[in-house]
Amino acid sequence: MTNSLTLPNVSLPLPVARKVVGPLFRVMLHSRLPWSVQRAAIEAASVLQAVPARTEVHKLRLGGRPAERVCAAGATGTGAVMYLHGGGYTVGSPITHRSLAGLLAHEIGCPIYVPDYRLAPEHPYPAALDDAEAVFLDLVATGVAPDRIAVSGDSAGGGLALALAQRLRDRHAMAPAALGLIAPWTDPNEIPDRERDLVVSTPWSRNCAAAYLGAGDPLDPGYAPLLGELTGLPRTYVQVDSGELLYTQCERLVAALREARVPVSFSVTDGLWHVSQLQASIVAPAAAAARELAEFITTALSAGQAAETG
What we know:
Elements: E1 2-3, H1 14-28, H2 35-45, E2 55-62, E3 65-72, E4 80-84, H3 98-108, E5 112-115, H4 127-141, E6 149-154, H5 156-172, E7 178-182, H6 202-213, E8 236-241, H7 247-259, E9 264-269, H8 284-309
């Protein structure tokens, strides 16, 4: 299907956007709400996040899971982006991230694949990681070389992207072209030092961490990839806002990646919020942050193509 919604010509001023976003997420991501209610609420709210005009959304199956292939109409770019949505491993879907996927598809010029991986608590770790692995291998089986696939994700999806790269390295001797991580949650064991940021509360994140872990080992690097071996991972981009609960964890991740000699770029915004890129269609600075991620991925995919043809 082709989505005909257009991005607005005006952007909400940041103070106004913050006053809208904060209360909305306080209600939707409440630690006392059943997971099913949270999931329904954020999918309903996602209609406020417009998809760029001339965006094509195709439903398919990858790795045995439902997925969406999001691309700009007429785009001819090669390569692919596998995008893992956030939501604490408990909420979120291709629907909630369709607007951001559409923006990235237009900016990068290649398809964005967004899998609907299994969620906790119904499917605790390692279900999401198993699904991500199966999706990546399925993309490779279609003829896309591993180094022509960038893996991106936000929050829990960013942590999942890092865990996937480690598993691909260890089990399959494969490496994606790059990792593009938005506020990645790479150590769910870490307890934030304050109650909440604009979007996420500590009680909610602790519930998510427990739901995802299930009966697993909290020190398993598949669950907490920041605790795992980082050497040999592909070039990585980390983006976070200075006001987020995950800001210091992202600093830890970047320092650890640099210690492991992984090429890493670290971008910090100020005055936005956790995964504000989802609101790129109505907040200009969030759109600018999303385009910075897209530029990194475009460069990485271009470098991979040059290496193949050179």
